[in-house]
Design brief:
globular; Coagulation Factor XIII, Chain A, domain 1; 308 residues; alpha+beta
Length: 308
């Protein structure tokens, strides 16, 4: 067969090799953090273990939505929010950011694991897998909030309890800052809006808290990732994931655990994460590269045979 007749076959083979490379390269979504103090709903359920949750609400979440939302604990975002939070997120969908994947986070239940807090200075702590320049605003629900009803924008006290300007670096993978919790009683929600200023992307979070149990808030700048016991009857104390748990679950996540763009870098992990499983991404890339190289080699060999 003349070489000219082989041209379409060569082009097709090259296209197939390129397609195989693309198919084997994981598509990594942007996703970059969750509130660890007071512990957010998704972080609390991830800490229990996606495969073996302990609390009934986390068991129900997995039964409804599967384990992937928990492995993707750092992804509750809207890529093109650009400050239009109320326009993009309807009442009743605040905790999920109106994303179907995270719909269970909107459940109006009183058995979500909670953090016991008291009025006064509170040390907020947010675990980030990529630091971004922007503004993190923390709200708390008004007195009289009914936790058996879905969260509405009007349920939030319009005066933030904390506003923090985030940078492209995060010490040991955390943003830590102080806020001031107002006088409240009973169960409430702390709601976070983190709007980047270098991108339209924004992140959201709901954390269940209980007031009135005599709990002492974390000292300024020393918020911990293990909370005091929740005081509402039948409510489990929320616990944040350990660094070892974060690292162990990263290979099962569909979202990035690293920085991207500009001078952003993944925050350094604590020593606790040392020796944990690494991401399967390099293996996937290596396999794809080998397949592409094989395809290229096959084309070269075919050309040489045609010329001989």
């Amino acid at each position: 067969m003349p070489s000219s007749r082989r041209t379409p076959a060569l082009v097709a083979a090259a296209a197939s090799a390129a397609a195989a490379f693309t198919a084997l390269t994981p598509t990594v979504a942007s996703a970059h953090g969750a509130v660890f103090n007071p512990v957010s709903r998704i972080a609390a359920c991830y800490a229990e273990g996606p495969e073996t949750p302990k609390s009934q609400v986390c068991k129900d979440l997995v039964a409804d939505s599967g384990t992937q939302p928990l492995y993707d604990w750092n992804e509750v975002n809207i890529a093109n929010a650009d400050g239009n939070h109320k326009a993009l997120i309807p009442d009743g969908k605040l905790c999920s950011a109106n994303r179907e994947k995270y719909r269970a986070l909107d459940w109006a239940r009183t058995d979500w694991p909670a953090t016991a807090v008291a009025p006064g200075t509170f040390g907020f702590k947010i675990r980030v897998t990529a630091a971004h320049s922007g503004t993190m605003t923390m709200y708390v629900t008004r007195q009289g909030f009914d936790p058996t009803k879905p969260l509405k924008w009007s349920d939030l006290d319009p005066t933030p309890v904390a506003v923090y300007n985030t940078s492209r670096t995060a010490t040991d993978g955390y943003y830590a800052f102080d806020g001031n919790l107002p006088s409240r009683t009973g169960r409430h929600l702390v709601y976070m809006v983190w709007q980047r200023n270098d991108s339209p992307e924004a992140f959201y979070s709901c954390s269940d808290v209980t007031f009135g149990g005599g709990a002492a808030n974390a000292a300024p700048g020393t918020a911990t990732t293990t909370t005091t016991a929740a005081t509402t009857a039948g409510t489990a104390a929320a616990k944040a994931p350990s660094e070892a748990a974060i690292a162990a679950g990263a290979p099962l996540s569909t979202v990035s655990h690293a920085g991207h763009g500009g001078d952003e870098r993944p925050p350094a992990l604590s020593a606790e994460a040392a020796g944990t499983p690494s991401s399967p991404l390099p293996l996937a890339l290596a396999g794809a590269g080998a397949l592409a190289a094989f395809g290229a080699g096959s084309l070269l060999l075919t050309r040489r045979r045609d010329q001989s």
